[in-house]
Amino acid sequence: MSLSQSQGEAFIHFDRDYFNSHLQKAVDGLLPPFQKIIKGYVLFNLFFFLLATTEIVLFIYGITWFAQSSALAVCLAVIFLTLFSYFILRAYLQTKKPLQCLRLRDRFIAASKSLIGYQEGIPEHHLALANACSRGAAALQGIEYGCYAIPSWLSLLAQPLERFSYWWHWEDVLRMRELLLLYGVDEHLQLVKCEPTNLEVHTALANVYVTLSSLYVDHSAGESGEVVGQSLDRQLAEEFKRKFRGAAERAMEEFKILNDYAPDDPWIHSQLAFSYRDLQMPLEEIREYETVLRLRPDDKETLYRLGTLYFEQGHNAKGLRVYEELKLSNFQRAESLIRHYGAYGQ
């Protein structure tokens, strides 16, 4: 799947070294404003929580005095005004935050384009911009756990604070990474239009679809949408399921294109098997692993995975033959394979 010389020549249009050396500055510049956006929403909620709590506590302690004066009505009005203001401003901020993230992404894209000297229709420019989006999305991965730092002498609070940070920010981080990756997908699609038969281009597009689908896979598990100990509402869980399936199916389409051009490449069939696994299509996954073994018969890891699938799908005779083959070859995990015997229907 290497580029031909003529294809490769079409990609040399800008200073790659300059771009790579300066792109990290743009990536680093993405994090502080993004954290400011998402932390601002938390500070807003905490401010009104403390304000309302203080007002209610003072009202309870002073209710005897308030009951003997007209101040009772004033205090109740202040409390209701605080709550009313909170819900109005909260709705405003919930609408504003996605727009702020979109503008931040656009600033990052503009900075990346200026490094490239971006021009529409130049394949390498589209590829470089898509890679910049992927790097930006990768830089955001995991930051939802560490948005807040505490002194070392408060280390006992580190884990609760990490959970608090995740609980508040996991969806914000996912949405921002999604914005970047979707822009990267668009650039890859433009690249395909420039080089429609280039296998590396289709490989890159397939990989970005796989990365995009991985955003949703942990958030679309199960009917209740379990997310690392957090339960999603049904509507959000269904949204993630739909987006995950759409991205995974598009990745498979790209791998099928690659398969048409390079049917004897075991890597392509392995990627198709992974996609079928994500889509919970075990029979198709088995077919792809069987093809991988035909092309790469000494691949014991693939054979082990195939044996597991055989047992899980009730093909016990085939699974036992795989077990015997792994055992004869002294494969370390052979004994663990037999534990899957009888897994069908469980």
Task: Explain the overall architecture.
There is one protein chain. With 346 residues, the chain is an all-alpha fold. The two termini are 42 Å apart. The protein is built from 14 helices and two strands. It has helices spanning 5-9, 16-28, 31-61, 63-66, 71-116, 123-140, 158-194, 199-217, 234-261, 266-278, 282-295, 300-312, 316-328, 334-337; strands at 226-227, 230-231. Helices cover 75% and strands 1% of the residues. The chain has a domain at 12-196.
Topology:
Blueprint: H1 5-9, H2 16-28, H3 31-61, H4 63-66, H5 71-116, H6 123-140, H7 158-194, H8 199-217, E1 226-227, E2 230-231, H9 234-261, H10 266-278, H11 282-295, H12 300-312, H13 316-328, H14 334-337
Antiparallel strand pairs: 1-2
Helix pairs in contact: 2-5, 3-5, 5-6, 5-7, 6-7, 7-8, 8-9, 9-10, 10-11, 11-12, 12-13
N- to C-terminal distance: 42 Å
Q: Largest beta sheet, briefly?
A: 2 strands, antiparallel
Helix content: over 70%
**So what's the overall shape?**
extended
Mean pLDDT score: 84
Low-confidence stretches: 1-12, 221-230
Q: Given the helix and strand composition, which structural class is it?
A: mainly alpha
Which percent range describes the beta-strand content? under 5%
User: How many β-strands, per DSSP?
Assistant: 2
Order of adjacent strands in the largest pleated sheet: 1-2
Strand/helix succession:
HHHHHHHHEEHHHHHH
Observed structural traits:
14 helices, 346 residues
Q: What would a concise description of this structure say?
A:
The protein has 346 residues and is mainly alpha-helical.
